[in-house]
Every structure is written in structure tokens, then in C-alpha cells.
Amino acid sequence: MIQGSIVALVTPMDEAGGLDLSALDRLVEFHIEQGTDAIVAVGTTGESATLDEDEHCAVIARVVKQVAGRIPVIAGTGSNSTREAVNLTRRAWSEGADACLLVTPYYNKPTQEGLYLHHKTIAEAVDIPQILYNVPGRTVCDMLPETAARLSFVPNIIGIKEATGNLDRLHEILRLSKPGFLLYSGDDASACEFCLQGGKGVISVTANVAPGLMHSMCAAAISGDREIALAIDGKLSGLHKALFIESNPIPVKWAASAMGYGKGIRLPLTRLTNASEPVIRAAMHQANVPI
To answer: Where is this site: Part of a proton relay during catalysis (predicted)?
Structure first.
């Protein structure tokens, strides 16, 4: 079972926006040393929207190679084109990913039946464990609990990243879905409570910056130790807010750069504004993250 602190890994880049694979290798090692439980390669935070297909698959392959089986690697392979998502998922499977994360189709605005058929088609085309990803704030497409539950009965769809921050949805999906269906938070600010109430972890932006604390918080919350989990989450609360002070992944790319992992970001995203730097510095200090 994949559970705990799952980092939505940034993709390190040089100042010109090219892939910095050496920094990526070091970043993967940092996460393994710090206790990160699994890695999502090339999700939203990994700038999947601006990597071409070959770059996308090269990053997945590099992470798989560097991890070398020590923790699970989940490849972001979602698309608003069902055919493209099938192809990316197939390539991630061939590169050795342990599972795939598939965002709901953005821009198209499909119906709930369209969402069901989209994910069912991908699952039936590629025999790899797949995790649904619902983030309506970005996609303008909301997978309702009934649809997630319906998809939970497709054999290789193992869970969902629910990023609305609505804890009522956690309970509704748990109630309706197949026993053993895994629920992951996609909202760092509510992830602690999400895990205390039955979630199995978080696919996290904050974990890029404070992986050790995120691992400890998730472990405590999943085991039901509310007091310890909340105490650790208190140290992380500043990061949960500061890393979204501008559009993700702008703030976390700045933080990763300050920690020595890459320098660049790709248009249409821009570098962090000067006004936001002190806010992130203060949050990193609160979490005892060296710059």
C-alpha cells in the first residue's frame, strides 16, 4: 500500500528553463534520506503542463532510475485527451513507474459519465495501478464522490487524490467506494485532519521543502495520534500558506532553488516576486528549513 507523505516533486531547471537532471538526482536522494514515503514525478508541481512528452517521460525515467526501488514512484500521466493520457501512462509503465496519477480532463468540461469513461478507458488500456486526481480549482472539472466511488470498482484504480480540501468528501467517498480504496489529500492545509479522519496520506507541495516533518506528521495522523500530528502540523502551517502565496509551483520552485535544487521555471509561470520572498523565508524558518 502506498501511504504517508507523497511529495509532488518539483522538476529542477536551469536558469534558461532546461531540465537540470543532476539537481533532480540530488533532490530524489534528499527525499529518500528525509523519509519521504513516495514520489510523484511530473505532476502539476512538476510543471507537467510545459514539459513536452519526451521531457515528461525522461523525468519519470530519471526518477525511477535514481530511486532504484527504494520507495514507490508515481508518474503524473493525466491529460484532457484520453488518447494522450493512455500513451503517457503506457510510457510511464514501460519506464518502470509503480503507479500513475491521472488528473481529471481540464478545459473540456466533461460530464460525470465522460469522466467515468475517460478513466475507465485508461485503466483498461494500461495494467498499472492508477490514482484519480480531482482538483477543480485548476481544471474547472469536479469529479463527484459518486463518480469516484464508481471508478473504485475498476480493478487497477486504487485511489484518489482529493484536492478540494472538503473533508465531507472524504467520508462520502469512503462510504460509497470499494473497501480498500485509498484516499489521499491534495490540500496541505487540511491534510493532517484528512489523515486523522481516515485518509492514507497526502500528495504534497509542502513536502518538497520540509519532507522530514511531513513524513512524521502523516505517520502520526494515520496511526491516530492526534496530539503529535497536530503539534507537527503547527510547525508546517506557515509553509502550507506561504507556498500558495503565488500560483503553484512558483513559490515552491523558489524555495527549492534556495535549498540548492535548480534555479529556473518555465513561462507562462514567472519567478517569485520580491514581495513574497520574506513570507516564504519566514515559513521556512518556522519549519527549521535551512536556506
So the answer is: 44, 107
The annotation status of 44 as a binding-site residue, yes or no, is no
Q: Rounded CA gap, 262 and 46, in Å?
A: 12
Bridge partners (DSSP) of residue 224 are none
Beta bridge partners of 46: none
pLDDT tops 90 at residue 9 = yes
For residue range 28-51, what is the model confidence (pLDDT) as tens digits? Answer: 999 999 999 999 999 999 999 999
248 lies in a domain?
no
State the pTM of this model. 0.97
Cell of 243: 507556498
77 is in an annotated binding site: no
Question: Is residue 4 a contact partner of residue 194, using CB atoms and an 8 Å limit?
Answer: no
- CB within 8 Å of 191: residues ≥ 6 apart: 185, 199, 202, 204, 217, 218, 221, 233
Active-site positions read: 133, 161
Looking at the 3D structure of the chain, how many domains does it have? Answer: 1
Residue 237 included in any domain: no
